[in-house]
Design brief:
4 copies of one chain form a homotetramer. The first copy, chain A, is α/β, with parallel strands linked by helices. Chain A has helices at about 25-35, 80-90, 165-175, 230-240, 290-295, 310; strands at about 10-20, 35-40, 45-50, 60-65, 70-75, 95-100, 110, 120, 155-160, 180-185, 190-200, 205-210, 220-225, 245-250, 260-265, 270-275, 290. The longest helix of chain A has 13 residues, at about 80-90. The two termini of chain A are about 35 Å apart.
């Protein structure tokens, strides 16, 4: 029997809403240190963008009592694809509702992934048109590169925690149509620890990693792209000078070959400045699978990931009643 | 009336055959200076690869009396897509024949683009498995990064010359399903000078630019990717030390925002080492169009492109009988 | 007869005064685009610094009717060295006067070089102590790296024009004790075109190049250091976005192996952002000499230097009455 | 009473002899991975150079039963300076003898530092003249940049272990005339842990750090310069692919602001690939002093230094009879 052709209904990660109990400090972090631009403010939220994002906004900062991730928005490849995916999600009982869309986007379908993260899909997108002071000298660049702070170019990906990685990974593959790029599986293939998936050539746009505390709907990190590894080093200088907590990096992951810098924005969410990695263009990509031994080898080079990298997510919670959260080696 | 959903039958540029009258020197250029690996040799040809290419080979060097481009191979997204595209190409009378496929690839359908360049499509691809001495310490990297020479990571794109850019651009869009990313159009929209197209998120994998000498089937340049702009600078140092002719760069294009270095391999073909640029993930990307004035402004920064950049392609020919080849500003 | 031991009375270039007819725009250029800090303002002048300069200030911007260079200040290696050099300069009739020193510096001896540039030497220097908001997280870094704009680290060197290069070059060597690093000599050794000299390991801190218009006391360019070539590329992006005129680069000089970017600050002075080059630690360094043919080969890579690079200096003047200013190839 | 003017008799670190029990593997490490060139072979030794070293050779690999450092050679600023320093060293009873000089160098005076490291001073130096195949396209570059491996540019510095840092630091300052750049002092100024000194603008060319095992004449690390931080990252990729042990980095030191990568060459000596840092041109530089708390903060960014960084030197020895070697935090 013929394999069905790959589903191609989701185009890319569109925007992520970040919840922060420190809205003023977080705004300063993303605007003044990472160099993003504010494009819109609504009650309790500020919408920002990287200079290379073609959409009006890719980051929504929302004031909340605790850090975490709000709505994760995905753009579909067509209006029909939007309907198809909404139907499939509804059929699974994962749908929430249709909305008129958040800032800059049209009609959107909200749903939950199996772990409980709130997501939405949409097709209509407002292309960013820079105001005079922010127009680039390059006609093909949506916005001026201002030279302020790190200057992150665009939203790249996010990693969320899930209590059951396998179920959520299958959801991403089968229902969203994402390609599985890499995974970490322990205990001779029986226990899925992490899965890196993507709807496009970017190595991963959605990663699921084990929530060792048994929570739901939590965030591991949100990641922004810079073009050169040198930009990541420069980010480390900038964040260090400002007293921002650097959890790990700059260093190079085994997984994804990403060149990373992990910090916590003032509200507590883990934010990555990221470069390197590799594009995946193969239609029949064979996932790269890592086991305990391979992960125990640590990062490729550049220092180890601390235990907090496994233990800490947002919102930060106490370990579940099970209390038997497994002791995992750092597995990214 | 509903727009048809985008065609998504071609996955990516698979391999390019380069004709060279200086096979030994060319081999040295690609292997020792660019740092590619030889994976296969057949009568009159050598197959090479970049350390990051997942396919067995992406460059075929074939001895010939004159430089130029041989067969340009594209991988399809599925077996069905291969059949669909073959049928569509045959229906247009552009088909040549089915073959058993070149080194590392399965059944392939050969055809010509309207300008006469030989291309082929295939689905089956032999994934590269590195021999012991070339295995990477990274499980997700198909081959060791050897540190020899420039160390180009992978084949990125090619630009070919065409006497009628508009016709070939429409062919790329309508028949191959490529998205038009940028174009140069002079005379108030009446004269197409260049078109940059791609089947995936890479900014362009196939560019058509005006053959000012009225030739057919000629090559402008073949381009290899490196991850960082610094790698392009290093390439300039390496090629300069070896007396390789550098035609232009390192500098930054307006078009595609690419950071480029153009040299001629010893056989005469123009070879680019390339980084920067930008990914396109928008399903409804609006092509960026440049006119005479905008192109006359030259490159974004880093020196001008010389007249040879317009006049020279491979094989190098005399201007056609028309003799009235237009004097174009350098338009990339 | 024994050679005298090398003179070592001048430690380094201390500060340069730049005259600008556009003080507000120039301030914005140096502060917001190059990322320097304002440390002091006096009548008609603003004193600035790079984040890595250990002295309180290394750049003085002075409002003037025309662009050009004001006083060029050199720090001596000791109080005794200051007296020795002042005596030597006085003996040659080049002395102007002793002053109490400009901002941040002690007693200073002003003089003119043979071409008429105003210089001064001093020993006492106020070490910079950053105010709270500008303190670096690094104890050995005099000031925070703010991440604003280019972020030039420190003053590196300047090149001045001189009608008689040989005389001024000998002055730099014999009277100031600078080591001759490279020179350009045409006409089989008879005509000195340029000389690059330094009192320390920095490749050159004072260059004399032919004033093709026969002027006196004029500036060719002032240069600021960044640590990585990538920072120079980034500077090109920043200046391009702001509409600053880029005259040449980023590219690599033959001379000094410097990786350069030349722009004009809004008042008209040529400003370089610079990296690469090489340190000279040899006590018996043999000057590298370039002739016509070698210079005609142009820059090492990265585009040519335009004719303005020879013709333009500040203040900008008409060619002298001789009118027979030689047509020189670009010789840097 | 007037301060004496600074002594300026030593120009720079000239060459270091490295002892290795794995001469073939070590040769491969320095030649094929670091990209150095072999210039001379003598009984039991191979002399190598970086492409930017002006001297004929800066590294001598000598076969030995255990790793460690052999003779550390310093070039003087003049023949007179050589005599002056030899006399001063002899007067202290530290002299060994005069020799005719090692490969490429003239008459040399051998001595020991207080800790027992063998050093020598010389003035005559054979300037490197590249053979045809290694001539650079740049007239001012002593040798071609070959693009092989890391491509270290030049010898930068070394750090040696000493049981009594204060005594050796005073020796470097008072007898060799080195400037003290940074130091680590614990116990409220009473216990010197490390001292970074230099005879020139390079931040440090000789560092003394506490030998926690109470040994003598041991090596901590030998360091080679690359121009850009990106080159250090690339070195990490190259060494990782070859299975070379990376002890720490790439990361940024607090001390010296150096951007480092520490590996062990196959014979066991710790080798650093190094960039960044800062030049010191101030004649009255005030040493930067770090205490326990400041050092406990670890490196500036990029991962921690492992305990081996304190414990391991070459030759590797057991802790002395005192057995009470203090537990130090990693202090670099």
């Amino acid at each position: 029997m013929a394999m069905p052709e790959p589903l191609h209904d989701i185009a890319h990660l569109g925007a992520v809403e970040l919840l922060t109990p420190e809205p003023h400090k977080a705004l300063r972090f993303f605007r003044d240190l990472l160099g993003m631009e504010v494009v819109h403010e609504a009650s309790g939220s500020v919408h920002l963008r990287g200079w290379g994002d073609y959409a009006a906004s890719t980051l929504k900062l929302t004031t909340a009592s605790a850090p975490g991730v709000g709505c994760i928005a995905w753009r579909t490849t067509s209006p029909e694809a939007l309907e198809r995916r909404a139907a499939a999600l509804s059929a699974l009982g994962l749908g929430i509702d249709w909305t008129n869309g958040d800032f800059g986007r049209g009609r959107s379908f909200r749903f939950r992934d199996p772990d409980g993260h709130i997501m939405e899909i949409y097709y209509e997108e407002q292309r960013y048109v820079a105001p005079p002071g922010l127009r680039s000298a390059l006609k093909n660049q949506p916005q001026k590169y201002t030279g302020r702070g790190v200057g992150v170019r665009r939203l790249d990906h996010l990693a969320v925690l899930a209590s059951d990685v396998a179920t959520n990974r299958r959801f991403a593959q089968d229902i969203l149509g994402f390609q599985l790029r890499e995974q970490v599986i322990f205990e001779e293939g029986k226990r899925e620890i992490g899965a890196w998936t993507s709807p496009n050539a970017v190595h991963h746009q959605l990663a699921y990693v084990t929530d060792v505390k048994g929570g739901h709907g939590r965030l591991h990190h949100l990641s922004f792209w810079v073009d050169n590894r040198d930009d990541v080093l420069r980010a480390a200088d900038i964040l260090s000078e400002e007293g921002i907590f650097i959890e790990a990096g700059p260093a190079k992951h085994n997984n994804s070959q990403g060149f990373y810098l992990y910090s916590y924005e003032p509200g507590g969410n883990r934010i990555e400045v990221y470069s390197g990695s590799y594009l995946v263009l193969a239609p029949d990509w064979q996932p790269v699978t890592w086991n305990e031994e391979e992960r125990a080898a640590g990062v490729y080079w550049g220092g180890a990931l601390p235990d907090s990298f496994i233990q800490y997510g947002t919102p930060n919670i106490e370990a579940g009643p099970a209390g038997d959260a497994p002791k995992l080696p750092v597995f990214f």
